[in-house]
Amino acid sequence: MPGYSTALASDAALLGAVKALIERMKVRGPGIPGRFYTAASCLEDDSEIDTRCWVEIATYYKDVGSSKALTEVEQYLIGIFRRFQLQGTKDPTKRDDYGRAIARHTLLSTLSKYDWTPASVDDVLTSLTLLPLDECRKTLRLVELGSYLMWSTFSDTAPDPFDPRKPHIELIDDLGLELASGLDFFLFWYQIPDPIELHLPSCADAYGGEELFFPFRPGGRTFPITKQGKLSGRPERVHKLITGENLKGQVEAIP
What we know:
The protein is mainly alpha-helical.
């Protein structure tokens, strides 16, 4: 049963509004990007979305959204999702080691926000994998390793968060990331400070970015892109941002 059915069971009008929105997003046709269909399927399967989030979505669509273009509805939904991130079920198990992959261009954009010259940013990216761990922590101590929130993976069988290790292309795919031609990644291995809680990810976490598209599926496992989610993927959790001072292992580069 879709998560919204339980969340909105007491209000037939709101429940009907969400059902109408989901069905509209599933329609394939001219001008209907595939991301809407993908997002609709995930929304149906997601039991981690906060009830208050469903109420806001349903109320908006019932009162206003049904008469708007789907791209306008999309932008409003993104705003709602951002207010209900990190509300999924808390993971009671705090592990010692977590990791994530960050694309080089994303890291370049992140570093450029700080008070560094372009030359300094290039120097950091060039030397990142060569610096001793302590020096790397010092260099990135104020740099947040994500935007809005962070997605992290882990291993239940080894300290290495990327265990079992696979060829680079397979590893990036397992993480639900797209290894486009010429796109480099850095692997970060870190600990998450005790005050920070981890949650099972919801569509609110996945779709609170720029558009309703993210290689995502509910349930706390990544969505391997080339296999279209037919593999089990890797475990993943979401949490508040941490900085490079929490690094625990050497930064690695994936060419």
